[in-house]
Amino acid sequence: MLSAKALPQLVGSLLGAFVASAIVGCGRNDGESETDAGAEPGPRPADAGVCSQPHCPETLYDRSQFGGPRRGVEVDDTDIYWCELTAAEGNVVRAAPKDGRGPVRTLGKWYDFAFGRSLVVDQSHVYWLRPEETGALIRVNKDGTNPATIPLPGDSEGQRLDIGPLVDAADAVLVATHGCTHVMRVPKDGSPTSLWPVSPYSNAGATTGLESYDQLIYCANGPYIHTLDPATSTVTEIVSGQDHAGPMSRVGPDLYFANDDSLPSETNERLAVLRSSASEPADLGGAFGFVGRILHDAPRKTLHWVTGLHWAVANVVTYQLDSPDAPRLLFDGQDAMGSCTSDADHIYWLSEHAVTRLKKWP
Fold first, then answer.
1. What is the pLDDT of residue 311?
2. Which overall architecture, per CATH, does domain 63-359 show?
């Protein structure tokens, strides 16, 4: 049975998914799209209410006249990139200067495979997935020019795999299926893709976590977290017995991850860690809601995340790595309908009709 606090999040997720599909028909439209004209006013407070913290959420780009930002969001040194649902253009990938002053440009069409990690941005290109045939990785220049299509391998019957999150891996993009049943390494130059079976278990739902550290690929879903060594194709089950392990962040030798452990607590979602010196994960406290991605800030020795999906009850949360304290709520009552990312100075997330950021402190 759902708890009273879990129900609003589930309703928010279902309504968000319904609205998305109703507006854009799953993003199957193709064709050229336009760049928004004119300058933007720059960052402004996201909420007119009282804010008692050193810094407060800001609206970087108000998208209410154009569509709804969803799923993936990434940043580089100068720009921010996100996926957006629109009635006029379908599902499109946007980019804009991260100072909030525009202009907003369109890079191409994306398809909603229902996962938060939907974009990869490297020094020269932006990457996302499309559904044609057995699926494809799209690569474009950061101005949207020179699009290239890299086909993905299918299953044993030549059908498209249930592809999910993607992450950067230097000269390749890693793609996992929902549930970690397979992981593929797609070279950015179009060389042959490698495909490995990983988890023997079926997709448990919720979030599939995918990360790469020190030549090992980590994939989490449901009760399990597995590692894959691409050099030897060796798969190791390193965590079991969880309800919904998902997003991960490795700090040194220790693996932090979000888990819905169904304990009677402030929230069902928890933060846990598998330390290199332990054989079982340790619970670190409530995560204050559904976690789609964990962001590591090494200089500040912190983890951050933004819970969602909900337009009124999302939270911004921090965990101090060098403190025994549980995760701490920074802001509640936020609007988060997509993933989050960060750079040295800010946390960024996608609101229902805006791209939002929060300046870090101290």
1. 62
2. 7 Propeller (2.130)
